[in-house]
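Reviewers asked in the last cycle whether our approach scales beyond single polypeptides. To address this, we selected a multi-component target totalling 1471 residues and predicted its structure end to end. The input consisted of the following lines:
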Amino acid sequence: MGVDEKFNSIHEKPENRIEIDKQFLSAPVKKAVDKFQLVPEYLKARGLARQHLDSFNYFVGTEIKKIVEANNTIKSSQNENIWLKYTNVRIDEPSTVINAVTVPITPHNCRLSDLTYSAPIKVDVVYCNGTGYINQAKSNVTIGRMPIMLRSSHCVLYGKDEEELAKLGECPLDPGGYFIIKGTEKVILIQEQLSKNRIIIDTDKKGCVQASVTSSTEVTKTKTVIRMEKEKIYLYLNQFKGKVPIMVVMKAMGMESDQEVVQMVGRDPRYGALILPSIEECASKGVYTQREALEFLEKELTRLPYSSVHNQREGRTMSILRDIFIANVRVTQNNFRAKCIYVAVMLRRMMEAILNKDTMDDKDYVGNKRLEVSGQLLSLLFEDLFKTMNDEARKIIDITLSKQSRASRLDIIQFITRDSISMGLERTISTGNFDVKRFRMHRKGMTQLVGRLSYIQALGSMTKISPQFEKSRKVSGPRALQPSQWGMLCPCDTPEGESCGLVKNLALLTHVTTDQDEGPIISLCYCLGVEDLELLSGEELHMPNSFLVMLNGLILGKHLKPQRFANAMRKLRRAGKINNFVSIFVNEKQHCVYIASDGGRVCRPLVIADKGISRIKENHMRELKDGVRTFDSFLADGLIEYLDVNEENNALIALYEKDATHETTHIEIEPFTILGYCAGLIPYPHHNQSPRNTYQCAMGKQAMGHIAHNQLCRMDTLIYLLVYPQRPLLTTRTIELISYDKLGAGQNATVAVMSYSGYDIEDAIVMNKSSLDRGFGRCIVMKKTTAVCQKYENGASDRIVRPQREGWDANKMQILDDDGLAAPGEIIRPLDIYINKESPKVTKGTATNSSELKDSDYKNTRQSYKGSEGETGAVDRVALCSDRSGNMSIQFMIRQTRRPEVGDKFSSRHGQKGVCGTIVQQEDFPFSERGICPDLIMNPHGFPSRMTVGKMIELLGGKAGVSCGRFHYGSAFGEESGHADTVGSISETLVEHGFSYCGKDFIYSGITGMPLEAYVFMGPIYYQKLKHMVMDKMHARGNGPKVMMTRQPTEGRSRNGGLRVGEMERDCLIAYGASMLIYERLMKSSDPFEVQVCRKCGLLGYYSFKLKSGICSTCKSGANMSTMKLPYACKLLIQELQSMNIVPRLKLTEA
Amino acid sequence: MDSVASYQRFPSIKMREVKGDYCKFELRNTDASMANALRRVMIAEVPTIAIDLVEIEVNSSVLNDEFIAHRLGLIPLTSERAMSMRFSRDCDACDGDGQCEYCSVEYYLRVKCHGDQTLDVTSKDLLSSDPSVRPVDFADPSAGIDSTDTRGIIIVKLRRGQELRLRAIARKGIGKDHAKWSPAATVTFMYEPEIYINDALMDTLTPAEKRSLVESSPTKVFEYDETTQQVLVVDPEAYTYDEEVIKKAEAMGKPGVIEIHAKEDSFIFTVESTGAIKASQLVLNAIDVLKQKLDAVRLSEDTVEADDQFGELGAHMRGG
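The resulting structure, written as C-alpha cells, was:
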C-alpha cells in the first residue's frame, strides 16, 4: 500500500500548497522525499564494476605517467653520453599483431581465439647513442603491451551503446572490470590490507604495547615498530640486528636534548614517568651526542650479504634513518625534525594506550583498512617491470660497452622494446602470482577466473574482497561482522567454511577511492590556518587545546580550532573546490584532524542534512526524473557527499528523514543499499534468519539461467543454461538495478507446502511430471572439447582426413562431415568420433615436406566423445582458429538438454536447498477447486528450524502478484519506504481476488479426490536450479581399470574408479565380525596376488614354469616353498622395504 | 452418507455451460472415487495428437534443435480424429515413421526470413498432411486480422537470413506419457456446498454485524439486502470452503448462524481444454476411455489367469 499512498499524496500536494502556501514554505516539513531514484542514477553513471574501472582508468591515465616520469632516464655508468630519456607515455588502442601487421581487436574475438586483450604501451623518447653527441628523438616506441580492462577508458567498448555492443558481440549487461588473458577472463580480486603510512597502536603476542607504521613510498616499503618492553621503549627495524633503544635513535636524528624529547611527547608527568626508563637506559649506554648515537647504531646494523653502494661519508646508519626508518616522512637536507616529531607522536600515542587501553587501535576496523583494486596492483607490477627493464637495459649497455671490440653500433632503443613487460603482465594476471621483488611482495591467488556459471557469479567476482590474513588463523576478530562495515561491505555475502568472514563483498553503493594529489590540499590547509610544523617548538606541539593536522599519515601542523577548520574544509569539498573523496575526520580522542586523500579507502554517498533537514527536496528529485539532473550534479550542488568510514564517525546519520533530529548531519539514501549484489536478490531478507541469507548468497552463484546476452556465442569450457528462465514474480529494487530481471536464473514455481508421498523428507521436493514435460527446470549443458592440428619440428603436421563411409569404423564416423569434422546439429553418442585426425609417424629429425608423405606415414589420432552410456549430446558449434603457436585449433561445443530427474538440486532464494525426491504424475498431484495444481511440493518441516519467514512472504506476494498482475517488491527493509509490499497489503490483494488472506488454499487429493484435512499454503516461489545434477555425479562400477603400480582399482568417477571401503567402513565390518566380507572387499575384489614364500628364509621367491615349482632366489632352492595369497600392495611394500635395506620375513605356520 | 448402503449408483450428468474449450457440468449421485476417476482420465488418458518426432533439415535460428522440437511438441493439434487413430506402437501398417495414415500425421515447416524485420514463425506456418489435424487456432473471429491471437503460437523468431526447415511427425498419445498429449488445461471439481442460514439466530445480529459477516467471505457467496436486512445466499458455488464465515460467526459469539456442508454425492466440474478437442467432447471421450478400461477389467473375467491374479477380488468384481 505504501506505493499507492505515495502516489496519492503526490497528487494531493499541489492543492495543499495553494491552501497553506505560507506555512508550507516556512515550516521545515518533515515529508520524506523518495531518494531511491538516486541509486539507479548512481549505478547508471558508474557501472556495476566501478571500483575496478575507476582504478584502472586512473592507472592508465595518470599513474603510469607518474611512474615513467619518476624513472625516466637510463644512463650508462660507463659512458655519460649514452643515455635515454622517456618524455611521454600513453596506451594505444587494443590491438594484436598478426604476421607483423597490427590489427585492432575486440574483446569477444580474444575470448574466442585465445588471445590477450591488450594494447601497446607507447613512449616518446629522447636518446643519445654517444656517437657525436647528437640527441635523437623518437616517438611511438612500443615498450610492451598492457592488458586492457574491459569497459575501461581504453577499451573499445567504452561509451558504446547497446546496439554497438551487440555488433561487437558483447553483452550490454556485462559489468566489465576484468581482463582477457589468453582467452580466459581474469579478474584481479580486490585485496584488503591494513592502511599504509598510518600509526597503528596494538599489542604484540606477549601483550607489549607497540606502535607500528608500514611505510610505503614510490621507492620502498618498510615496516617500523616501536615497542615497549619491560618499561623501556625500543625500535624494531629489520636493518638492525635486534631492538634498538628509541632514545638512541632520537639522538642519532639530532635530538640531543632529553628535555626536548619529553616536551615533544607531552609534558604530562605520567608520560614523563613512562619515558624515564628509556632515557636512563640511553644514558647508561653512554650515548649523549648525535655522533655517539650514530656510532652506537652502526654496531647494531645487520651485516650486508654483499657490499652495496652507499654513501661512505655519512655512514650507513644515517641513510637508513633517512630512507628506511618511517620512510613516508621525507627528510630534506638532513633535516630530521619532522621525523623526530613523528616518532614523538608515535610515542605519545603508545603511552596514551598504556595509560588507557581504550585508545588502542582496532585492526579490524574498516577505517584502518585499504582496499587495493586492480589499478593499484597493476601499477605496482608495471613499476617493477618497468624498472627491471630499465636496469637490464643499463646492464646490457654497460656490458656491451666494456667489451673491447664491438661489431655493430650500439642502438639503445632495441633494449627497451623487448617483451619483458608484456610477458610479465600477462603471466602475473594469468597465474595470479604477484612476485614483486622490489616491494617484497609474493602473493598467490590474486586473480581469479570470472565465474560464468551465472550472471550473478560474474557480478560477484567483481565485488569479492580477498583477505590479507592467512586463513588458518584461529582468531575470531577478523571474521566477525564489524559495525564499521555498515553500508560499505555486505553483511550477508561471505562464504561458509574456512574463509568465512575473511572474504567479503562490497555493498551496492560502495566506492573505492583512487589516489589524489596531496599538493593542493596541503597548501589549502595552510591557508585555512594550520600552523606549520617547522615553526613549532616541541612544547607547542601538544598544547591542550590544539589539534594536530595529519594528511595521509603525515603531520602537517596544528590547528587551534579543529571543528572550524574541518567545517571549512568540508564546505570547500561540497563546493567542489577539493576532490569529493577527500575525507576530513576530527578525532577528539587523539586530538587530531585526519585528512585523507589516499587510494583504497571505502566510502559511500549520503544525503547531506542541515540540522536534520535533508538538502534534497522534492524538486530535486523531480528534476532528476525529468533528466535535468544527474548524480554528479547532486554532488556538485552539495546535496550529496561521499563519506569514508572515518568521517562517518563525525557524522550523525539518520536512516530515514523522519528519524532525523537537530543533530543529524546526514541521511541514508536507501537502507537496502547496505547489501551487496548477491544478497540483493533475496526478497524480504530482513525477515529471514541471517545465515539463510548467507547461504543464498553462495547458492545464487550456482543457479542456472541466462549468463549473458551473448551466451550462445561464447566458447567457454562449460556453460549451464536454463531453457526457459523467468523473471522473479517477487522482485527487489536491487534485482532491477543489476538487471537480474533480464538475465534471470530460475523459474516461478507454484509451491504447495505440504507433505506428500514420503519422498519429501530431509528437504527433498516432489515435482510434477507435467510441469517438467512443459519445460520446468529444463537446462542446457554445453561442454567444449578442443583438438589441435599440431605442426612438428620436421615440418610435418597433423591432418584431418575424409571419414570412411563404409567398413569397420564407419558407424563411429557417422556424424562426421566430408571435411573430417563433426557437423553441427548432429547427435553425438559416446565413442563417436568427432574429428578424424591423423598424425605423422615421424615428427623429429630432418625436414620433410608434408606433401611428400604417404598415407602410410600417418597414424590415426582420432578423437572420440567420452561420456558414459546415455550421455548423448548434440554438436552445437564447431569453431576453427589458430592458437598462440600458430597451430590450427578446432573447438567443438557439445550440447546436452536435460530435464530434471530425481536427485537434481533445486533451491529457493532463501538458502533452502533440496533435491528432487520423486516425480509424480499430474493427476496424482493435489489440486484446488480453481484447478490450480502445484509444480512442486515442499515439506513444511523446512520452515520451523530455518525460520525463513521471507520465503513465506515471497509466496504470499507472488500469489498476490499473479492474481493482480503487478510485480510485487520485497526489497530489504523496504516496507518503510515503499520498496517492499507489506503482508497487510498483500493479504488485502489476495482477499480481493478470492483467496484466503493467509495464502492457504482448500485442496483435494489427486489420488482419492477427497478434500485434504488441512488448508495448504500454496503459491508461487522463485526456484533456482543449481548446477549439481545427478547425471554428472552418478557413478558405480563392477570390473574396471586398475592402477598399474598397486593393481588396486582406480579412484574417482572420471577414471571409472571403484568405491573405497575406507578405514571407518572397515571398522564397522570388524565390529560386526564380518571377516569374510572384509577379506572379499579388501583382497579378493581389490588386488589378489599369489606369491611363493620360502619357509626357510621367509623371503619371496618366484614360480619357475620350467621346474613347475616355486624357487627361492635367496636360498637358491625350491625345497621349502609355499604358495600363498597376498594383496599385491603388500607384496609391493615388502619389496619396497627390501629396496631400502629392511628385510621383512614372513613366518608361515599351518592354519 | 449413511443413507446409501449399497454401492449401486446411477450417476447423472447435467451440463451447465458449454463453450468450445470450456464447459461446466454437475455430476450427481456418485461419490468422490467416480468423480476423481473421471478427472484423472480427462487429464491423463484421453488421447490426442501431438508432434512427437522432428527431423530438422536446416536450423539457423537462435534456438537449438531440441528447443524447437520441444516447442513443436507442446503445440496443441486438433485431435477429433485421435480416438479413432491407432497408437503407432500398435500400428500394423507401419513402424511409426510417419508413412502411415492410420497412426501419424506429417508436418512440414519451411520458413526463411528475408526482410529486416524479425519474422515470427508460428504454428500457422506448419503445413499439415491431414487437414483435419492442424494446429489449434485460437483466433477470436470477432477480433481483427492483426490481433495477436490470429498469428498462432510462436515457435521461434527469425532475423534476416535465418532459416528453419523441418519435417515433423505427429502421433497419437496420452497425457500419462507426456503432458503434450493431455487435452486438458484445467480439470477440477468441487463438492457442491450446502449452505444453511439459521434465520432465528441471524435475526439476533445487528445490521452492521450482518454486513461484516457477509464481507468476511473472500468470495461473494452472501449478500446483504439493505432493504429487507437479510443475509442471502447468492452464489453457493463461489464458496471455497475457507470457513471464514464460520470463523467470523464464532468470533461474533454466534456459532451456528451459518452452517455449510459439502454434499458428498454431487460435484461441480470445470473443464478447460487446450483446444485439441472440444471440452464437451473431452468429457465424452473420458467416459469412453473409462468404459474401455472397465471393459478391460471385465474381459479378464473370462480368463482363468484373472482368477488367480485377483482371487477373491475377482469374484467380488463379478458381483459375487
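Chain B has eight helices and twelve strands. We regard this as preliminary and will revisit it once experimental data from Aim 1 are available.
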